[in-house]
Amino acid sequence: MHFGDILEGTGSGSFYVFDENTAPLFGREMLEVLNDRYTVLPAGEQYKHLATVETVLEKCLSFGLARDSTIIAVGGGVVCDLTAFAASVYMRGCRCILIPTSLLSMVDAALGGKTGVDFGGYKNMVGTFYPAEEIRVCTRFLQSLPEAEYVNGLAEVIKHALLGNRNLWTLLTEEKEKILARDSELMTQVVDYSLQVKGHIVEEDFREEGNRAFLNLGHTFGHALETAGGFETWSHGVAVAWGIRVALSAGVALRVTSPAYAERVNDLLDSYGYPSSADADSSRVLQAMEHDKKKRGGTLRFVLQKDFGETFITDIDSKIVEKAVTAHLHSS
Ligand code: GLY
Asked: Tell me: the pLDDT tens digits for 139-198?
């Protein structure tokens, strides 16, 4: 598969950031055209830190990039977040183009201007709000993803549908086979609907002072599960899908969520193979939530839904939280 066309017109003075997974997609010939004006980062969340940003900034300096130069990220969420962060601080902000290659980065990381790296043991603890000047989406990249990485991104697509896009919900329920087969044309539509949902929310609340937090549906619980598994057992998406189930259970227990709606969502998540119960120790998951609470100044807010597209943010009594979490855990 040839991806060179996605870089067309990005400018001869630009600097490109790939990782070990995305550079090979372009082949030696294409990379030679870039005249060494690129770097290939090691792949993985463990490299999403300030030292990697520094290597990108050093390269930008050595190639004499100016404030009107462009840094271009070609990769998944780590590459996009980290490169956009580097662009936001290089000479107090230079131009940035993002070319997301994973489903997760196409529908989430690339849009909305959140940049950053992990710091002090917390994910995305240091960063800026700095929207990319341009985002180039090519769903042919999806063919290059390992299955687990694709499933990781689909959970965020499902979340976007639940936030209120009927067209996306219809595609997810009626075109599951094509979606799972990564049909390029259909996925262009799926990504487009997904970006419409996120774009609309971000436009209204760029700095997450209000409803942007709706995008965290399933994330408070999901993040606790990811943490309890040391970020190795569950991918972000699988944990978010699990977290959506827990949020719906909590909502039903609070008598705010329609049980019929919760059942429809659980059926959809089942049909895409997301586990309804995770093999984890409840005390570790609840402890991770406490840890998160500390980071957030002592309060945890939960994103719940009454029904499709009816989302709100609330505190939840710790007993209900505990019950909803435990109902979706088992130990082997
Ligand atoms: N990933 C959630 C947000 O961009 O706000």
From this structure: 999 999 999 999 999 999 999 999 999 999 999 999 999 999 999 999 999 999 999 999
Q: Are 253 and 320 in contact, with CB atoms under 8 Å apart?
A: yes
Residue in 142, 198, 213 with CA at minimum distance from that of residue 168: 198
The residue type found at 320 is I
Whole-prediction pTM: 0.95
Contact 28, 4 (CB under 8 A): no
Q: In what order do the strands lie in the sheet with 134-135?
A: 38-41, 15-19, 70-75, 95-100, 134-135
Q: What ligand 1 atom has the least distance to the C-alpha of 216?
A: 2
Do 228 and 141 touch, CB atoms closer than 8 A? no
Q: How far apart are CA 263 and CA 148, in angstroms?
A: 25
Q: Left if phi > 0, otherwise alpha if psi is -120 to 50, otherwise beta: which for 222? A: alpha
Q: Summarize pLDDT for 235-287 with one digit per residue, the tens.
A: 999 999 999 999 999 999 999 999 999 999 999 999 999 999 999 999 999 99
In this structure, the residue with its CA closest to atom 2 of ligand 1 is 215
Bridge partners (DSSP) listed for residue 15: 71
Distance 240 CA to ligand 1 centre (A): 13
Percent of the chain residues topping a pLDDT of 70: 100
Q: Is 112 in the pocket of ligand 1 (CB under 6 A)?
A: yes
* Ligand 1 midpoint to CA 79 (Å): 16
236 C-beta closer than 6 A to ligand 1: no
Neighbours of 180 (CB within 10 A): 15
CA distance 175 to 257: 27
Distance 76 CA to ligand 1 centre (A): 15
Contact 195, 187 (CB under 8 A): no
The residue nearest atom 3 of ligand 1, judged by CA position, is 215
| Interval between CA 109 and ligand 1 midpoint (Å) | 7
pLDDT digits (tens, 9 = 90+) for 33-85: 898 999 999 999 999 999 999 999 999 999 999 999 999 999 999 999 999 99
Report helix, strand or coil for 305.
strand
